[in-house]
Design goal:
8 helices, single chain, 16% strand, globular
């Protein structure tokens, strides 16, 4: 069974309103965010925090690792996955990799110890893994990883979910995403951030005709039209990191597609 980064959102997903709990997340409409971001990033670097990433082989995970290294936000970066990844760029030379068997995660508890922040981008599809395999990866692997991370001292756990996640949904994909969101919340991390993006716009290496058509459709629309239903992967990743460097006194925060877009785009205004 292949385990990838979080799968692209299904074509019917945007009809479900993901904002029922959106008020739990912080507001990102403050225009001063772009002005304060460099200071927040520098303050965060000074704390010498460590981070682990699950799902670094997937499209979102790969971009996340790249951005983390480019921004130099963490003193130690660890990738946890089923196989060792190969990187040619010099920037990756100090990245630690822990190879684990997701079916026997208890035997690899040490891989989850000593990390301040964790990002989970694990995911597969029912088409690739079957219904049982999909549930195993997107719920069981994610939850067990979160449990070990909490036991290992992780303070801030970030979960990449999807727009429309709802454990009462009649769609298996949305149901499982909603279930794992709720189960991870029960672990009571000091800070727990859920990201619910719409259709992820990226150049996926795998050939999935239906997803390719969806990405092409939204990619061809004016940004103002596509924004409620889709978001570039790099925007999601920057929103995750921009959120991480922002101090928060909330134990749980849920960012829907609109909030992700606003926070991720704050990064763009820093460019000359």
């Amino acid at each position: 069974m292949e385990v990838w980064g979080s799968a692209l959102v299904k074509p019917w997903m945007w009809v479900n309103n993901p904002c029922s709990r959106g008020e739990d997340g912080p507001s990102f409409n403050n225009p001063s965010m772009a002005e304060t971001l460099p200071n927040l990033q520098e303050d965060f670097r000074m704390q010498n925090k460590s981070v682990f990433i699950l799902g670094a082989s997937g499209e979102t995970g790969k971009v996340l690792v790249k951005e983390i290294l480019e921004q130099s936000l963490f003193s130690k970066v660890t990738l946890i996955g089923r196989r060792k990844l190969t990187f040619e760029e010099e920037a990756y030379k100090n990245v630690n990799q822990e190879v684990v068997d997701f079916e026997k995660l208890d035997d690899y508890a040490s891989a989850f110890q000593g990390h301040d922040v964790g990002f989970c981008c694990l995911g597969t599809t029912k088409k690739k893994a079957g219904a049982e395999g999909f549930v195993r990866v997107d719920r069981d692997y994610v939850l067990k990883s979160a449990e070990l991370a909490k036991a290992g001292g992780c303070k801030h756990f970030n979960l990449l979910s999807s727009q429309g996640a709802d454990r009462s949904s009649s769609f298996l994909y949305l149901q499982i995403k909603g279930e794992v969101e709720a189960k991870v919340e029960e672990l009571e991390f000091d800070r727990y951030s859920i990201f619910r993006p719409g259709v992820l716009l990226c150049d996926r290496q795998e050939s999935r005709p239906s997803e390719w058509l969806i990405r092409k459709f939204f990619g061809s629309l004016p940004e103002s039209w596509a924004r409620p239903y889709s978001v570039p992967v790099v925007t999601v990743v920057r929103a995750m990191l921009n959120n991480a460097v922002r101090p928060s006194d909330k134990k749980m925060e849920l960012l829907d597609n609109k909030a992700i877009y606003a926070l991720g785009k704050a990064h763009d205004t820093l460019k000359p």
